[in-house]
């Protein structure tokens, strides 16, 4: 019996905004990118996070200690690479913080996968932006994640259950033909935290957070995977510049 052909894989980094932070944990002014990722697995598409709200395009929002901006919407970027948002079958939201879910309405045909603890937060205190309403109101399917999960059963796209930053935080391992990567979500906010497995100051459970950083580092060694920190400006260049994809 002939061996089935491996699915074609691709990974795009999408620009989902920036935080211009006046003083980040005593390190002075920091420009922090907001990253989202589109993964193609054969004919299936997965979107990891949806970034800051679309209404920021062409303007900015000042919050305490920081300014939020967005250059392009996810819909605009998907259009540039010819991907209809309706084709995205799975949306993975790494955690409940707003910069990771505020354009979710762009892919409202998708099922939503989110950590169980973070889903509980959403249901107890619905977010200000209403992008997640189709899922929170039961109109679209939601699956609560409580452990690592192989999305397609072939090990190519794996959700990593990494609580600590939030109760149900998720990261993701993607195994392409040319390389493997781990997309951290907010497991850490910059690469410097990896060497000492130091959680960020806003982790809700720093003990668990440290343990999960150490576990992800071990997975990266086993899988020979490169760790991509979504909020670290230095890591943008670790993937091809959009509209190119890593394959």
What does this structure look like?
The protein has about 250 residues and is of the alpha/beta class. The chain is globular. The protein has an eight-stranded mixed β-sheet. About 40% of the residues are buried. The protein has one domain (about 10-240): Ribonuclease Z/Hydroxyacylglutathione hydrolase-like (Metallo-beta-lactamase, Chain A, 4-Layer Sandwich), CATH 3.60.15.10. Strand 11 (about 170-175) and strand 12 (about 180-185) form a beta hairpin. It contains five helices and 13 strands. The chain has helices spanning about 75-80, 115-125, 135, 190-195, 205-225, and strands at about 10-20, 30-40, 45-50, 60-65, 65-70, 90-95, 110-115, 140-145, 150, 155-160, 170-175, 180-185, 225-230. It starts with 8 loop residues before the first strand and ends in a 19-residue tail after the last strand. GO terms for molecular function: hydrolase activity; metal ion binding.
